[in-house]
Write a structure and sequence with these properties.
alpha/beta; Aspartate Aminotransferase, domain 1; Aspartate Aminotransferase, domain 2; 17% strand; binds pyridoxal-5'-phosphate
Length: 389
């Protein structure tokens, strides 16, 4: 029997990534106190790739409540939710989330990825159909692939295509789930969520909405863009972005909550979120609705920066939110601009295939309420320098 190198597949895959200039590596940074600036290899950078949209990761009230829960309840939740990991603070937080989001119930998950990748397969079976927006987050796709339902994608934000697929599917499946987001993570555009919700109603389909990048930043009292839509069966929000901490929640009906508690492996077979995280989420949930004035300033800042970037001749794609892509197309140019930004003290992520489609490599900027006028000045000055060659 020939002796094969059992790890040859590692070299093969990694070398191919390297040849395609798509090799990914990790680099560590140290956050600076009370600032969106970070340190890397002894240098200080302005972070334009953080999802801490409102700066809550370092808000004193968030840290204080996190600390007080840690001291009162300990470092870990010590068990899964169905065993002895449901503390009173988990239950209280779920009640508060449900109330804030105008739903009967809410259920906390350990992360958005864990929720999406496990719920989709749980609410469908081999007689079901999943219709997902083409640009849906990887976690939703993993959820669809993990189950046994038929799976089709509709063209990004294309209501007519979605309706055509719904018509074609009529009567062939036990249920149809539509999956979409409110704010898309790579392009920073929004979905026509009201129209999608109406279509779901019209065809008696279920709707799963991922509100990860809207919560905190957009919507009535910052509570997202799908809160008031009755046709949404599962409304997912994450707490690792504008909430400034970690974890995720689903807002839904009482019955859907009971179903997930009984059948969703990503909820059942994992240790419950620790007290310090529950404290932080709780504090952010109280803060977010109160930040109306700050959000108005934030929205103005976002519009101003995007307009300035466009006036320098850059393509910002369909962005209408705090996620502003600078689409350069070529990977080489994208890496070049990321390098120049870094040289000038700015950390911004160069996003390349396979994360985005071929020829759409980009710098993905995310704006935070914590960016100062000076930070923005440095960003715009550097982008101007790039355009002037
Ligand atoms: C749209 C969307 N959904 C879900 C997730 C996953 O959330 P989490 O970071 O909580 O795992 C992300 C984060 O990258 C995301 O952008």
């Amino acid at each position: 029997m020939p002796v094969n190198d059992k790890n040859a597949f590692l070299d093969e895959a990694l070398n191919s990534r390297k040849e395609d200039q798509q090799f990914r590596t990790l680099s560590s940074v140290t956050p600076q106190p009370n600032s969106i600036e970070i340190e890397q290899d002894g240098n200080r950078y302005i972070n334009f790739c953080s999802n801490d949209y409102l700066g809550l990761a370092r808000h004193p009230k968030v840290i204080e409540q996190s600390r007080s829960y840690l001291e009162r309840y300990g470092a870990g939740s010590t068990a899964s939710r169905l065993i002895s990991g449901t503390f009173d603070i988990h239950t209280q937080l779920e009640k508060e989330l449900a109330k804030s989001l105008g739903r009967e119930a809410a259920l906390i998950f350990n992360s958005g990825f864990q929720a999406n990748s496990s719920i989709v397969g749980t609410v469908t079976d081999r007689h079901s159909l999943i219709l997902a927006d083409k640009l849906s987050h990887n976690s939703l796709l993993q959820g669809a692939l993990a189950g046994r339902a038929s799976f089709q994608r509709f063209n990004h934000n294309d209501i007519e295509h979605l309706e055509l697929l719904l018509q074609q599917a009529d009567g062939k499946y036990n249920r149809i789930w539509i999956l979409t987001e409110t704010v898309f993570s790579m392009d920073g555009d929004r979905s026509p969520i009201k129209e999608i919700s109406s279509l779901a109603d019209k065809y008696n389909a279920h709707l799963f909405v991922d509100d990860a990048h809207a919560v905190g930043a957009w919507g009535d009292r910052g509570l997202g863009l799908a809160k008031d839509l009755s046709g949404v069966d599962i409304l997912l929000g994450t707490c690792g972005k504008a909430f400034g901490s970690f974890g995720a929640y689903v807002a839904c009906s009482n019955k859907m909550r009971e179903y997930l508690i009984n059948f969703c492996s990503g909820f059942i077979f994992t240790t419950a979120l620790p007290p310090a995280v529950i404290g932080a989420i709780n504090a952010s949930l109280k803060l977010i609705p109160q930040l109306e004035e700050e959000r108005a300033v934030y929205h103005q800042k976002i519009q101003h920066v995007r307009k300035e970037i466009q006036s320098l001749g850059f393509d910002t794609g369909p962005s209408t939110t705090q996620i502003i892509p600078i689409i350069l197309g070529s990977e080489k140019a994208t890496i070049g601009l990321a390098d120049l930004l870094k040289e000038q003290g700015i950390l911004a992520s160069a996003i390349r295939p396979p994360t985005v489609p071929k020829n759409s490599s980009r710098i993905r900027l995310t704006l935070s309420l914590s960016h100062t006028d000076e930070h923005i000045k440095v960003l715009l000055k550097t982008l101007k320098k790039w355009q002037n060659g």
